[in-house]
Amino acid sequence: PPELSILNNCSPSQLEGLCSFLQLSTCPEPFLVRFCSWLLALTPDLSYTSAAILAEQLFLRRVLSLTQPPSRHLMAALTSFCSKYSHPFCRVLVAAMLQEPGEGSEQTKLMCELVEECLEPHSVQMVLSQVLEVPLSEKLLPVLQAVLGRQEVLPPELLDLLVLTLCQQAPAFARSLSYAKLVTAVLTAYQSQVS
Description:
Layout: H1 12-22, H2 29-41, H3 48-64, H4 72-99, H5 105-117, H6 121-133, H7 141-149, H8 156-169, H9 177-189
């Protein structure tokens, strides 16, 4: 709809107010899918800041409250939004999922699915760097495994950080099968760069 061009003309605070007025954080999921398809067609593209605000307003509450796998509508909306605005999406959503205490198994599965199927290579690298910024836990090992499964060429400094983190964390994961699989995957995928 032509009215959506207002999204490109709002200040960040106006956009937050508009999202609140429209109750986007609680709108029905079928509408969320339609809204995200409208966002993809919007020209010019949203600014980084506007996309980050929309990622937070549209998805943050829904994703953090997941206690079972996301519905197909929510997954379609996430995939659609990620296809065009993966950088702000990762900055907002992945960062929030990493900060969440507790098990968060549905959030972890969702992150793995997004890494495996939706994100562009540069966004996969961003997820890896975000994961390596927080203390490594059993919950995050599958996310690292998903990143490695993409078989992307990692920048040397990011690969060095990954290897260093795995080495430093080895004593804490002495009995972890997931950790052993992860180390094996790193050695297999990057054997020429890991000494």
